[in-house]
Fold:
Amino acid sequence: MALIRPVALTGSDQAVVAAPAVYRGLTVRETSGSAGAVLRLHDNASAGSGTILQTVALAQGESANLMHPDGVWAVNGIYADVVSGAIEGSVYIA
Structure:
């Protein structure tokens, strides 16, 4: 089994990795304290397109830890789109 590497989320939209990678999961927490948050991970190295790998909707103060033990191949890289709210956490890649 390959080791996984966490990539910290900045709280804004960002490229997690700009090359092919295996998406293994994430840990995120809603941080605004007054509203929920939505995060989408795309199979793409830049904003605006690509197959959605994962969507996470969090209520106020909620957190989520999601793992994909076998991984999901992201041929174009991984882009994190913070659709709404505020988050902190990491995306796990191999």
About this structure: Residues 5-93 form a domain with the Jelly Rolls fold (CATH 2.60.120).
